[in-house]
Write a structure and sequence with these properties.
With 379 residues, the chain is α+β, with helices and mostly antiparallel strands. The protein folds into three domains: 7-114, Acyl-CoA dehydrogenase/oxidase, N-terminal domain (Butyryl-Coa Dehydrogenase, subunit A, domain 1, Orthogonal Bundle); 120-229, Beta Barrel (Butyryl-CoA Dehydrogenase, subunit A, domain 2), CATH 2.40.110.10; 232-378, Butyryl-CoA Dehydrogenase, subunit A, domain 3 (Up-down Bundle), CATH 1.20.140. The protein is built from twelve helices and ten strands. It has helices at residues 7-23, 28-34, 41-47, 66-79, 81-88, 94-100, 103-114, 231-267, 279-307, 313-337, 349-356, 366-378; strands spanning 120-123, 139-143, 146-157, 164-170, 181-187, 193-197, 209-220, 224-225, 269-270, 273-274. The strands form three sheets. The protein has a four-stranded mixed beta sheet with strand order 1-4-5-8. A four-stranded antiparallel beta sheet has the order 2-3-7-6, with no helix packed on it. α4 (66-79) runs antiparallel to α9 (279-307), α6 (94-100) packs across α8 (231-267) and α10 (313-337) runs antiparallel to α12. The two termini are 28 Å apart. Bound molecules: flavin-adenine dinucleotide. Residues 121-125, 130-132, 155-157, 204, 209, 358, 361-365, 367, 371 line the site of flavin-adenine dinucleotide (FAD).
């Protein structure tokens, strides 16, 4: 057993952190206030190899594992989770192509993601079905060698600029509940698609979130990813891997909140001494650091298993829900220790606090993660 990261992994970590400090720090407040996704940021990330990390080298990607993806995600989110998401999620969903696509699909869709020339979205959630994803109703009806797709998707990341949506559709309505759906790639320039950006999010405001309407959109049957009626096993495999990335967002964000808190409480004095000098405060920051370290160890282990081809769904669900809860808890303490200054947007902790909450909701609400863990124990 070796808990030490390799020199290459440390270099990846360092590169990602320096990139985030240089590129995110000067614009993070503005992007948050104005709900702005900065032009060119994705391409800058792509230039130094931060995009498409897990895509195999033969398709232009980094050819690295989910542990390396977690390391990069953590360091980007440490500075700003919304801007980190702009860089990391542009290829998010491409794993479906990577794992289940045909050779032709891989050659066509993966390389442009790595260079930042294209972006993808994973369109699963609908206005009336999120956690209960099997209740989604967007339908894809075969007409000759095309699917005709009609339905609505909700909360879709990157929808405004994605070049294609990997969309969960009902193709086999008469099958059993978990055998009705398929994943179909829909290019965003096809006729019948309307995308609306969702404004007024609590956090992650630099990241694009959208609702998408498909009105009799025609795509070739060759756009099916994997097998018909097989979306659920495919998505479970996808989420099992990518949860380690979402957990890393929480770990990075929590670490960033702790970093900022330590700087603040060492400088600001109350009752004639730095806030940090109070033993009660030392107990809090010790607990913040311990929880972050626990979340990190859990997530690195989960990602390591994914990379060994021994994915452990229970461990990944633990990593994701615990990292989300840790981020929310740590940010609450961070804001508290900043006092009134923590409550105004001049200080970054309020942004971290707002960004953190989504980690308990998206990519599976934390309750859904706990159900996965419990289900594995029932076996
Ligand atoms: C910023 C953002 C980005 C997102 N990006 C994407 C994206 O790119 N693609 C995509 O497809 N989706 C995306 N989502 C959607 C996200 O995955 C869903 O919001 C999430 O799965 C929860 O679904 P829901 O909102 O419909 O909540 P619901 O399913 O209505 O659940 C509401 C709440 O009920 C509770 N709950 C639900 N079921 C149970 C249960 N069985 N036991 C106990 N409690 C339960 C949970 O607390 C849950 O939060 C995004 C969401 C946000 C906010």
């Amino acid at each position: 057993m070796d808990f030490e990261l390799s020199e290459e992994q440390k270099l990846i970590q360092d590169t990602a952190y320096k990139f985030a400090v240089k590129e995110f720090e000067p614009i993070a407040k503005e992007c948050d206030r104005e709900e702005k996704r900065p032009e060119g940021l994705l391409q800058k990330g792509a230039e130094i190899g931060l995009v498409g990390i897990t895509i195999p080298e033969e398709y232009g990607g980094g050819g690295l594992g989910f542990l390396e993806l977690a390391l990069v995600t953590e360091q980007l989110s440490r500075v700003d989770m919304g801007l980190g998401s702009v860089v990391i999620t542009s290829a998010f969903g491409s794993e479906n192509i990577q794992f289940f696509g045909t050779e032709e699909q891989k050659k066509k869709y993966l390389p442009p993601l790595v260079t930042g020339k294209a972006a993808t979205s994973g369109a699963y959630t609908e206005p009336n079905a999120g956690t209960d994803v099997a209740a989604t109703r967007t339908k894809a009806v075969k007409d000759g060698d095309e699917y005709v797709i009609t339905g609505n998707k909700m909360f879709i990341t990157n929808g405004s600029f994605a070049d294609w949506f990997i969309t969960l559709c009902v193709t086999n309505p008469d099958n059993k509940r978990f055998q009705r759906h398929s994943l179909i790639l829909i290019e965003s320039d096809r006729k019948g698609i309307t995308v609306n950006k969702i404004h007024g999010k609590m956090g992650m405001r630099a990241s694009d979130t959208t609702e998408i309407a498909f009105e009799e959109v025609r795509v070739p049957c060759a756009n099916l990813i994997g097998k018909e009626g097989n979306a659920f096993p495919q998505l479970m495999h996808f989420f099992d891997a990518t949860r380690t990335m979402v957990a890393a967002q929480g770990i990075g964000l929590a670490q960033g909140a702790l970093d900022k808190t330590l700087t603040y409480i060492k400088e600001r004095e109350v009752f004639g001494k730095p806030i940090f000098a109070n033993q009660g405060v030392q107990f809090i920051v010790a607990e913040m650091a311990t929880r972050i370290e626990l979340a990190r160890t859990l997530d690195y282990r989960a990602a390591w298993y994914v990379d060994q081809g021994k994915t452990n769904p229970s461990l990944n669900a633990m990593a994701k829900y615990f990292a989300g809860e840790t981020a929310v808890w740590v940010c609450d303490k961070a804001l508290q220790l900043h006092g009134g200054y923590g409550y105004i947007d001049e200080y970054d902790v309020q942004r971290y606090y707002r960004d953190a909450k989504v980690l308990e909701i998206y990519e599976g609400a934390k309750e859904a993660e706990k159900l996965t863990i419990a289900r594995m124990m029932m076996k």
